[in-house]
Amino acid sequence: SIFIxxxxxxxxxxxxxxxxxxxxxxxxxxxxxEGIETAWDRYEKQLPQCSFGQLGVCCRNCNMGPCRIDPxxxxxxxxxxxxTADIIVARNFLRMIAAGAAAHSDHARDAVLTFKKMSEGxxxxxxxxxxxxxxSLASEYGIPSDGKSLEEIAANLADVLLQEFGKxxxxxxxxxxxxxxxxxxxxxxxxxxxxxxxxxxECMHRTHIGVDNDAVHILxxxxxxxxSDGWGGSMIATDVQDILFGTPQPRKSTVNLGVLSRxxxxxxxxxxxxxxxxxxxxxxxxxELLKLAEEKGAAGINVIGICCTGNETLMRHGIxxxxxxxxxxxxxxxxxxxxxxxDVQCIMPSLGELTGCYHTKFISTxxxxxxxxxVRMEFHEDRAYExxxxxxxxxxxxxxxxxxxxxxxxxxKQECMAGFSAxxxxxxxxxxxxxxxxxxxxxxxxxxxAVVGCNNVKIKHNYGHVxxxxxxxxxxVLVVTTGCNAIACAEAGLLLPExxxxxxxxxxxxxxxxxxxxxxxxxxxxxxxxxxxxASAIANRLGVDISDLPAAGAxxxxxxxxxxxxxxxxxxxxxxxxxGTIPAVLGSQAVTSLLTGGLNDVVRAxxxxxxxxxxxADLMLEHIDEKRKALGLN
Length: 634
Ligand code: CUV
Ligand code: SF4
Fold this sequence. Notes:
Elements: H1 22-34, H2 39-46, H3 51-55, E1 58-59, E2 67-68, H4 85-119, H5 131-140, H6 150-166, H7 180-189, H8 196-207, H9 215-245, E3 251-255, E4 265-270, H10 274-283, H11 287-295, E5 301-306, H12 307-317, E6 321-323, H13 328-333, E7 339-342, H14 351-356, E8 361-364, E9 375-376, H15 384-398, E10 414-418, H16 422-428, H17 434-442, E11 447-451, H18 463-474, E12 477-482, H19 483-491, H20 505-514, E13 519-523, H21 528-542, E14 551-555, H22 561-572, E15 577-579, H23 589-598, H24 600-603, E16 607-609, H25 613-630
Parallel strand pairs: 4-5, 4-7, 5-6, 7-8, 8-9, 11-12, 11-14, 12-13, 14-15, 15-16
Antiparallel strand pairs: 1-2, 3-10
Helix pairs in contact: 4-6, 4-8, 4-9, 4-22, 5-6, 5-9, 8-9, 9-21, 9-22, 10-15, 18-25
């Protein structure tokens, strides 16, 4: 079965085979007419992709290699050091988890460092926006707040949080939020997470030549590292960002390429860290810059988001989103973008050459991340607002350079409702998870589906996301979403209370009673931590483990290493998860069967792989029904 790899991965030459989204199709047409290359074209040039790589059996961990294992069993079955396919596949998988956990957690570190500088008065542009969350987090971390100023509490909290990264003793404090039975299971397995950085470093150590050479042992470290991301780095990022920028509340906005403005300066914020985008949003309202925009003949300044930065600004300010991962190039190809402002993660280096074909300024801001052909405007906390103003000014001054003949903005845009933090969901429920639990136990809501993750050229853009989610809500599964799935759902009109018309009768009635959409946008990828917190609250209320809940996860179009780390912690937390693209593990029967079955005996959850979204939904429904039965529900 490992030789059917190329199923569904054929060339996609027709535009309607590349994306289900009309706006995207129109811009892909424009790209074709203008001879502009996109990710889909580059994908075609990569085909057929290397089978050793696809199977995960290529090792470059030392310079005796590269070594590769012959999957047909005829050629080499061992690397030069003696590593087998099982060892090589497991090591490669662990390195993906390490990179993904590093990305989320290093983002978290920067959020905490900004928080700390703010508390010391060295980041004047930032404030404490959610006092209640600061105080509750401080008390959770055992920080006394009597007689202290908010800044002092914040400084103490920042110090404690920073220690979580380099912790040498004990386990991560966020794990207090994990249901007791789950935490006990982790302790028994020896996968309670220690310091966040330590887990990532240990992955790199273990995968060095001649260290950890047992697939199961390697994968357990993968689970622990994933947990240190989900219940550590990502959770810390979410919490601190909520304190600094506010905990999201439901609000309406619009999505898709049609949110680009014909007559305003379009500034796109793309990447992952709200530290930057929050300031850009503020700077775009600066009277001085608005005046400058007017002088340049623009009707105003239009800030819009892409990818998870977009999710962050949508959740907190209702800033519109131009698209998800595979729409980043398309946004530029509209010819209407004055500045593409980026920080870190999921930013295609192709944007360098691409922006050069238009008037778009490509502005990179992170000290960590640079790209070809960027204007570098490094962003530091001590003069955050000033830098944000300079960035927006650069965009405004670029407005007169827009070339009208090259501009096509598709009219497609879609209303959506976002902002469903765990707090906001509890609010919508009237303060406790009970109404939702009653809806589940009563059968109106069959279960909960967490659908997340990227786009991937191997799957028609948004096809996996939208069809999977539609099938789930049709079957009365309430969907919670983050990341690029949330944007896909928004574009398909699924993030509106009216979308409950597409839901089964039970879910429809619940949505109508609460005034909520059947698909709840919970934020960016680090905000999957919100889903964990919600799942934990429900499990605790029912007195069961997360693995007992009628719930399932999916990443229908995932591609990033972060998604692998997410998969590791979601499954470790007890949630069965269906992947829509095949991870590079099929070269090892042992690793494959462990991930797709054996893990059930370890963490009471496992992965499945299913590229067809309707079949993926069936797998999730089947799982949900099994869990319902075990809980005595029908
Ligand atoms: Ni972090 S990780 S493509 S932007 S969800 Fe989108 Fe979300 Fe994947 Fe990247
Ligand atoms: Fe080859 Fe072993 Fe070196 Fe990997 S670590 S490249 S399998 S010799």
